[in-house]
Amino acid sequence: MGDGMSDRDEAFAEYFAARSGSMRATAYLLCGDWHRAADLVQTTFTKLYLRWNKVQRQESLDPYVRQVMIRTFIDEGRWGWWRRERPHDTTIERPAPPGAPVEDRLMLLRALAEVPPRQRAVLVLRYWQDLSVEETAAALGTTTGTVKSQAARGLATLRAVIGAPVPAE
To answer: Could you tell me which residue ranges the RNA polymerase sigma-70 region domain spans (predicted)?
Structure first.
């Protein structure tokens, strides 16, 4: 440790280096702006650092970090900043996934920006992070029933914004 970095700081730096990129991608889907996504990740990792001695012993830090990020996003969303920026106002830095035309991806990102924060968080966790209903509920600190209803409402909002027909129930 000749560089003056403690074991705690080194462990945190390693975790940050390994996970901050994927967390930033998730944050972008939540807020629709790369700069705000970077701010959200920075805030999340600052909160993590402050609790690092307690949480680094957990089997998996990812669920905890995801929960902190989602809750921070929802709390900040109450202030309204997430509505000021739209995905079409930013430069898309990531390539489209294989097989997905860029126009479709941009349309989906614009539509996602129209979904209320909690519903958007559910959609991102369920369909981008591929979490189960139970894992999503744990990340949001809510029930599985709420996750299911928020997902249904969020998908309905996406369909309405995109102009896709809503299936009859």
So the answer is: 24-78
Query: Is the dihedral angle over the CA atoms 155, 160, 165, 169 positive or is it negative?
Result: positive
Stretch 99-126: mean pLDDT, rounded? Answer: 82
User: Other C-beta atoms within 10 Å of 70: how many?
Assistant: 27
Question: Could you write out the three-class secondary structure of the chain?
Answer: CCCCCCHHHHHHHHHHHHHHHHHHHHHHHHHCCHHHHHHHHHHHHHHHHHCHHHHCCCCCHHHHHHHHHHHHHHHHHCCCHHHHCCHHHCCCCCCCCCCCCHHHHHHHHHHHCCCCHHHHHHHHHHHHCCCCHHHHHHHHCCCHHHHHHHHHHHHHHHHHHHCCCCCCC
**Is-contact 133 149, C-beta < 8 A?**
no
**Contact in structure between 36 and 65 (CB atoms under 8 Å):** no
Token pair belonging to 161: 């914004």
Is the overall model pTM greater than 0.85, yes or no? no
Burial 12-30 (b: 16+ CB within 10 A, else e): beebbeebbeebbbbbbbb
